[in-house]
Amino acid sequence: MRLPGASPAWKAEDTTNSCALVLLYVESAQTLARRIEPLPSGMPNSGQDQFRSPREKDLADLYRLDHEAFGETDGYTHLVLRQLFDAHRRDFLLLKRDGVLCGYALPVLGAREDHACLLALAVLPEFQGQGCGRSLLNAAVQQVREAGARRMELAVREENHAARGLYKKYGFRDGELLTDYYGPGNHRFSMSYTMD
Ligand SMILES: CC(C)(COP(=O)(O)OP(=O)(O)OC[C@H]1O[C@@H](n2cnc3c(N)ncnc32)[C@H](O)[C@@H]1OP(=O)(O)O)[C@@H](O)C(=O)NCCC(=O)NCCS
Known about the structure:
This protein is α+β, with helices and mostly antiparallel strands. The chain contains five helices and seven strands, in the order αβααβββαβαββ. It has a single domain, classed as Aminopeptidase. It has helices spanning 29-33, 59-74, 78-88, 132-146, 161-170; strands spanning 49-52, 93-97, 100-109, 115-123, 151-156, 173-178, 188-194. The model is unreliable at 1-15 and 21-42 (pLDDT under 50). The site of coenzyme A (COA) has 22 residues, from helix 2, strand 4, helix 4 and helix 5.
């Protein structure tokens, strides 16, 4: 069984999610031991937006959300989502707006102490264009910053204008085209954000 915490490296081809990792190594128990707390201080957990980490019973909703946002081709399989949940449950950020689970982000610390990767960011189609993506991205950056990260990296489809627009507006810089990143013909574009 391929458990991220048990294998020497989490391979890129294990997922086709378009926002997945640039360089993620879940190397050892040490890495798992420095998992970050679910809710950094100052997280806006009142009013219309609420952030929390997922519970076992959220997995089915999370799968649906991910597939509605990414579609069948790029959505995580049940297997990958389960593995990410088992290894990174406390890193996930679920966003509830007005009581509805409308989006999620998965920021994780990378192989280098001060680097983080944004493995996923998704908002339900009917909630898009209302600031949920920005709110999740901000919470994701805040979470890894509090855990010691100074740089966040991600990989995105070059033609994903909504996501690239969001990242650019937030302050991410364009990187390079990652040819065949998820296998032959499946390219991505790298972007990175340096924290103050
Ligand atoms: C990308 C995504 C997360 C954005 O979430 P969202 O809630 O719609 O984004 P927001 O409403 O917070 O928008 C924030 C900024 O993003 C940019 N943006 C959002 N939608 C955009 C679009 N369709 N085209 C261009 N820029 C867009 C804008 O700069 C916007 O700021 P503005 O409203 O001040 O102009 C969402 O479209 C989504 O889930 N897409 C499918 C999954 C996906 O592609 N995830 C990212 C993978 S790397």
